Amino acid sequence: MVDRSMEPGFLLLEDGTLFRGRIRAGSAPRAAEVVFTTNMTGYQEVFTDPSYDGQIVVLTAPQIGNYGINQEDPESARPQIAGVVVRELSASHSNWRATGSLDAWLGEAQVPILTGVDTRRLTRHLRSDGVMRGVVMPGTDASDTARAALAACPAMEGLDLASRVSTRQPYTWGDPGAPRHVVAYDYGIKRNILRLFDSHGCRVTVVPATTPAEAVLERRPDGVFLSNGPGDPAAVAYAPRAVRAIARAGVPIFGICLGHQLIGLTFGGQTAKMPFGHHGGNHPVRELATGIVSITSQNHGFAVEGTADGIPGAPGLAVTHLNLNDGTVEGVRHRELPIFAVQYHPEAAPGPHDARPLFDVFLASMGATGRAGGSGRGALPEASEPSS
C-alpha cells in the first residue's frame, strides 16, 4: 500500500551531489552541515544531544525506528538536529518502554526525515570529500529554492552554538544534601552527565555558558565541569577567560568534548576542523600512561591540535590519550593543577562504559567529602597563558 504521507525528496550537498529518497509531505527545506554516525542503537539519544545542533545526521545502520521512542532516554527536552537521513525508516516499532513512533516524534518537532537513501554511498562520499553543508526537502531534482537555502547556510567554522543551546538560567540537579557540589557549565550538556553526577553523590548547579568565573566561585564548588556542546570551540571566546580564573583558584576542573577543546584553548593550544569528525560508539582510544585501550563514544567535528609529545603552545598541558584510528588528541591534563579533560563521552548512553571511571577520577580530585579546592591552591604558569 502506498504511504500517502510521504512524497519524493532529496538531499543536495554543496558540491552538487544529489541523493534521492522520500520525505514527509509538506516538509520545509532544512539546510545544515551533514555528518554521519556509526551508532547501531541510541538514535533518540543522538537526536536529542545538543552537540548535534545545526546538523543533518546520516545513520549508517540500515534500519532506524524499530524500537520507537520513550520518555526516559532523551538527552535534552527536544530533538536538536536539523534533519535525519536513513536507508529505511521502520514502519512499526516494538519495545516495552516505547511511547510512540520515531516518525511521529520527529514530525511533531518539525524535523524532516529523508528515507530510502543509499546511506552507504553517502557515508563513503562524506568520508572521501569531508563533511559539507546540505539541504533536505521535497522534490526530485535540485531547485533554485534548494540552492538558495544552501547559500544562506553558514559554515560551522566560526559559529558559537554553545550559547544558543545553553540554559538561560541556572538550575540544580540531584540531592540537595549530597556531600559534593559541582558547578557545570552548560555548553550543550547531556542529561546522562547529570544523572551520573547524581549517582556519584554530587549535587549539580548548571549555569549558562557565558557565566563569569566570579559567579561560579561565589557558589563555592568542589569542582567545575565543562560540558560537551556544538559549534566551533574557537568561537566560544568568552569561555577561556572564565576557565583560566577558576583554574587560578585551584578548583578541580573536568571537561568532556567541547569542554576538552576549551581547556586546550585556555592554556594556549589551538583547535582545527576535522575532515569528517568522530561520530559513533566504537572509537578506540589508548591511555598513554598504561597502554590500556578503551572503546569510546564520540561526537565532535573539531579537535585539539597536538601529538603524544604535547600540545603546541600549551606547555602546561600533557597529552594523556590518543585516538588509535587517526592519532588525534583524546585527553589532556594540566601538569600542575587539578585539571583534566577527554574528547570522548564517558557518560554515553547507550554506548560503551569503558571510560565511566573518569567520573571517579574527578571525584577523587575533590577529596572524600568535597571542598578539596579553595582559593590559592595553585597559579597558572605565565607560559600557559593563551596569547588571546
List the helices and strands and how they pair.
Elements: E1 6-13, E2 18-24, E3 30-37, H1 43-47, E4 55-59, E5 63-64, E6 83-85, E7 88-89, H2 102-108, E8 113-115, H3 119-129, E9 132-138, H4 144-152, H5 162-165, E10 171-173, E11 180-186, H6 191-199, E12 202-208, H7 213-217, E13 223-226, H8 239-248, E14 253-256, H9 258-266, E15 271-287, E16 293-304, E17 317-323, E18 329-334, E19 339-342, H10 358-366
Parallel strand pairs: 3-4, 4-6, 5-7, 6-8, 11-12, 11-13, 13-14, 14-19
Antiparallel strand pairs: 1-2, 1-9, 2-8, 3-9, 10-12, 15-16, 15-17, 17-18, 18-19
Helix pairs in contact: 8-9
What would your notes on this structure say?
By secondary structure, this protein is α/β, with parallel strands linked by helices. It folds into 2 domains: 6-152, Carbamoyl-phosphate synthase small subunit, N-terminal domain (Glucose Oxidase, domain 1, 3-Layer(bba) Sandwich); 162-384, Rossmann fold. Helix content is 20%, strand content 30%. The strands form 3 sheets. Strands 10-12-11-13-14-19-18-17-15-16 form a 10-stranded mixed sheet, sandwiched between helices. A 7-stranded mixed barrel has the order 1-2-8-6-4-3-9. A two-stranded parallel sheet has the order 5-7. Helix 8 (239-248) packs across helix 9. The radius of gyration is 21 Å and the shape is globular. Residues 372-388 have low confidence and may be disordered.
